[in-house]
Amino acid sequence: MLATDAPTPDPDVLAQSLPAAECIAQHVQTALVEDLGSGDITAALLPAGQRGRAELITREMAVLSGRAWFDGVFRALDPHYQADWQVRDGERLMAGQRLCVIEGGLRELLSGERTAMNFLQVLSGTATRARRYADAVAGLPTRILDTRKTLPGLRAAQKYAVLCGGCDNHRMGLFDAILIKENHIMAAGSIAAAVAAARATAAGVRVEVEVENLDELEQALTAGAERVLLDNFGLHLLREAVTLTAGRARLEASGGISLTALRAIAETGVDDISVGDLTKSVEAVDLSLRLSPSG
């Protein structure tokens, strides 16, 4: 069951956040090669040139994500493919709702059906899970962030799906932000030394430090960290951390975060909560594509 507290993401914002066309095309091509190999020998049994039509429906409540990947699969196989969508990415879906009607070559529709559905079901599943987390903190300023715990090769797609579900993105990878963890601190000699090295080697890049207690938090603040990740802090320690920080850095709670505990964590006053479960615990949405020949 999906609540309806948090607002639906702005379609214009989602459009701007969609991965580049080249990225989506690469995802599609890799998936098609994996499935088709040297060719679909079952679809070859059908007459060439026959057209087909299909309706896509959802069998359960969900949040839609992945239209570009779904359409990209069929367009890669049939340049004359057409789709009439009735819903946008980020919209909440009702069980039994018709999402779109598609038309194209019958062989191509059959060859691309599984790949297209895999993309849409997995990304909608990610968006649906993200929506549950976003709804749990509705009305509070705390952001829910994803992590790097994504399906290999589909990080950009899953992070887009997280946005469709109303949550936010952490760093994309190891290249766009610095997160200093325990082993980095040990190698550098101290939190201060690690932060100083980060400033020297990557000027202008956001620096975040992971800490395990209030003493390390104070060290990170003194060193000038812009963000601090509070690893496995209980509710009492989270409140103390918020008071100690007093706005000097953005605080992120992380580690063993469950949906049931989410709102209580947000109410401690932390700015962000990062949740690996958004992308690593994939539960595909139950969709159905009903295909029929036409013409």
Overview of the molecule:
This protein has 295 residues and is an alpha/beta fold. The protein contains eleven helices and twelve strands. The protein has helices at residues 11-17, 21-36, 67-77, 106-136, 155-164, 182-188, 191-201, 214-223, 235-245, 262-266, 277-280, and strands at residues 51-58, 62-63, 82-85, 92-93, 98-105, 143-145, 178-180, 207-211, 227-231, 250-254, 272-274, 287-294. A six-stranded parallel beta sheet has the order 6-11-10-9-8-7. Strands 3-5-1-12 form a four-stranded antiparallel beta sheet, with helices on one face. It has a two-stranded antiparallel ribbon with strand order 2-4. Helix 9 (235-245) links the parallel strand 9 (227-231) and strand 10 (250-254). Helix 3 runs antiparallel to helix 4 (106-136). The longest helix has 31 residues, at 106-136. The chain is elongated, with a radius of gyration of 22 Å.
